[in-house]
Amino acid sequence: MLDADQTTELAELFRLLGEPNRLGIVASCLEGPLSVSEITERLALSQSLVSHHLRLLRAARLLKAGKRGKQVFYNIPDCHVREMLTNMIEHLSEPHEQEEDLNSEQGVKP
User: Fold this and answer.
1) Where are the chain's structural domains?
2) C-alpha angle with apex 80: 79 to 85, nearest 5 degrees?
3) Which residues pair with residue 75 across a beta bridge?
4) Calpha distance 104→50 (Å, rounded)
5) pTM value?
6) Measured CA distances, 34 to 5, 49, 55, 74 (Å)
7) CATH number 1.20.210.10 is the correct assignment for the domain at 4-97
8) pLDDT score at 103
9) Is residue 54 a contact partner of residue 74, using CB atoms and an 8 Å limit?
10) 30-42: per-residue pLDDT in tens?
11) Mean pLDDT, range 66-87, rounded to an integer
């Protein structure tokens, strides 16, 4: 399945997304490309902090940058990142099942 290097690289991607501000930046780009100023406004973060996180997210290929005129816009680079994040958001939106429901589905008696 995954070799040691791939496992380490994947763990690093999840570590990067495990920081709430970075996750918020990537999630805000689900709607489409955003400039640094739009990201700072949406997340109420300083421009220097957003720029720092964007540098890390770009290096990890979780976001890509593209220029329009003088402004740089950040976007999710491909469907894999978009689908993974969208699926996890949908997972959070699902109603939580009670432990008893899970046990009955698995044939476990309380």
Assistant:
1) 4-97
2) 95
3) 64
4) 46
5) 0.82
6) 32, 16, 15, 5
7) no
8) 59
9) yes
10) 999 999 999 999 9
11) 93
